[in-house]
């Protein structure tokens, strides 16, 4: 029961202040025309890149296709991810209560629901280790550091996905974001620092190629958490803006990186990698399982 003589209801001057009595409908933050078109354009770019990388590998011996296969898997995964997002799948809403402050009347709140493209995090979880593997192979990084770099990248992307579903004003959300950033620091240490040392052992040409590719990729990857903090973190940009910026970063870090790497390894024999054994020849006759052989 509201006291009609209370000052917060009528104000100091006796004038009646409006008191919200209707619960507002949820506010939805979602993509519009620009975001929708961007998703389809990115899908087309990745689909074309997948076909191009596949064609480039046809004239390469299987033993020398490692970079081609990994690059193709990266853009193929991105193709599927962007098709899911463009077609309306791979997305959900995260709703949270937002407080509205009023003068002389009690605060109210309303619900804001923002689109989160979880397919993007699935993409990053798969493609980031593949991109790191290419850098590690190029530089000659040992298996232990390569494995740890891949594990750190998984922590990085999974933590970012958990943070995306947290409330923007809670410590939980920014705690997950901090874990993601720390994991990224470990990725840089395992790949850039160790890779820089091992690449020099393979020669100046390999070191130059690795240095350029690593710097290019890590500069782009450093922009991701900044965009995330502004978009998914603080919700300071529209969903469309986030889609456009992420699409540009994804194309540069996947397609641009792939073309650069494939071109560099073709022009630099020292950077080429040849993998024998099961990769190129399959199981030998001694290693095959013989069905129906009584001596097997």
Describe the structure.
The chain is mainly alpha-helical. Helix content is 64%, strand content 7%. It has nine helices and three strands; from the N terminus they run H-E-H-H-E-E-H-H-H-H-H-H. It has helices at residues 7-10, 33-58, 66-86, 118-139, 143-164, 171-201, 204-233, 239-267, 278-281; strands at 27-29, 92-100, 108-116. The relative contact order is 0.13. It is found in: Membrane. Belongs to the archaeal/bacterial/fungal opsin family. This is New eukaryotic opsin-1. Keywords: Chromophore, Membrane, Photoreceptor protein, Receptor, Retinal protein, Sensory transduction, Transmembrane, Transmembrane helix.
Quick structural overview:
The protein is mostly helical and 296 residues long. The protein has helices at 7-10, 33-58, 66-86, 118-139, 143-164, 171-201, 204-233, 239-267, 278-281; strands spanning 27-29, 92-100, 108-116.
């Amino acid at each position: 029961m509201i006291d009609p003589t209370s000052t917060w209801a009528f104000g100091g001057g006796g004038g009646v202040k409006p008191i919200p009595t209707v619960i507002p409908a949820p506010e939805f933050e979602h993509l519009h025309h620009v975001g929708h078109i961007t998703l389809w354009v990115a899908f087309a770019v990745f689909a074309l890149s997948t076909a191009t990388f596949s064609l480039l590998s046809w004239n390469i011996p299987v033993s020398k296709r490692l970079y081609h296969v990994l690059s193709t898997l990266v853009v193929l995964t991105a193709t599927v991810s962007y098709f899911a997002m463009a077609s309306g799948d791979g997305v959900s809403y995260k709703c949270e209560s937002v407080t509205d402050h009023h003068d002389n009347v009690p605060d109210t709140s309303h619900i804001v629901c923002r689109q989160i493209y979880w397919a993007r995090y699935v993409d990053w979880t798969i493609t980031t280790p593949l991109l790191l593997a290419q850098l590690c192979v190029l530089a000659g990084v040992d298996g232990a550091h390569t494995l740890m770099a891949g594990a750190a990248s998984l922590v990085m992307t999974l933590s970012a996905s958990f943070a995306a579903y947290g409330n923007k004003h809670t410590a939980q959300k920014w705690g997950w974001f901090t874990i993601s950033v720390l994991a990224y620091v470990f990725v840089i240490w395992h790949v850039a620092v160790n890779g820089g040392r091992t690449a020099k052992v393979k020669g100046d040409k390999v070191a130059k190629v690795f240095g350029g590719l690593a710097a290019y990729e890590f500069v782009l990857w450093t922009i991701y958490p900044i965009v995330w903090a502004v978009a998914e973190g603080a919700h300071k940009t529209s969903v469309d803006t986030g889609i456009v910026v992420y699409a540009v970063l994804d194309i540069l870090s996947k397609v641009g990186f792939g073309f650069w790497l494939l071109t560099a390894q073709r022009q630099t024999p020292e950077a080429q990698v040849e993998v024998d054994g099961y990769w190129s020849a399959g199981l030998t006759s001694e290693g095959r399982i013989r069905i129906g052989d009584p001596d097997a």
